[in-house]
């Protein structure tokens, strides 16, 4: 929970005084109940910030299976945060303070939900294979040597 600063406290006291004075001007209440009304209004004002952040976190809707299917296209993944298409979601998620696990949890996505579009992953895979990545060391070095001898002739 957030700590209240002295400036916020003074502002809450002023707001509570204005609200209570407006209430008392239009509604007759006994003097003995006035401190309780002031205290309850001040407590309500102090609790607004924490209650708003809690309800905002709870308002996130879980994605339905059809929404999950529609969010995965061959060329892009549609973000549940802003609805825009992305080739990779990881950087987008980090700008919103999320990681892939928390994103999946927040929107009720399956554990195997992709973070990279299929066509982009295939492009990157082809690029890696073309430069010899992912092969055992002896095989890759012998192929590099063979390519080197072809270039010199």
Automatic annotation (TrEMBL):
Pfam family name, one: ROS_MUCR
InterPro entries: ROS/MUCR_sf, ROS_MUCR
GO molecular function annotations of the record: DNA binding; zinc ion binding
Tree of life domain: Bacteria
Region Disordered: start-end pairs: 132-153
Segment forming the signal sequence: none
Biological processes annotated in GO: regulation of DNA-templated transcription
Family that this chain belongs to: Belongs to the ros/MucR family.
Protein name, as recorded: MucR family transcriptional regulator
Upper lineage: Bacteria, Pseudomonadati, Pseudomonadota, Alphaproteobacteria, Hyphomicrobiales
């Amino acid at each position: 929970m957030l700590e209240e600063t002295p400036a916020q406290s003074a502002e809450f006291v002023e707001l509570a005084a204005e609200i209570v004075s407006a209430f008392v001007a239009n509604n007759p209440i006994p003097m003995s109940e006035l401190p309780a009304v002031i205290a309850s209004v001040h407590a309500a004002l102090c609790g607004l910030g924490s209650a708003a952040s809690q309800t905002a976190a709870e308002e996130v809707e879980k994605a339905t299976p059809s929404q999950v299917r529609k969010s995965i296209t061959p060329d892009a993944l549609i973000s549940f945060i802003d609805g825009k298409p992305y080739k990779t979601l990881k950087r987008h998620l980090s700008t919103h303070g999320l990681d892939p696990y928390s994103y999946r949890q927040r929107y009720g996505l399956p554990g195997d939900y992709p973070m990279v579009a299929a066509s982009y992953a295939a492009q990157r895979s082809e690029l890696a294979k073309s430069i010899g990545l992912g092969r055992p060391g002896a095989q890759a070095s012998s192929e590099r040597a063979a390519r080197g001898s072809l270039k010199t002739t």
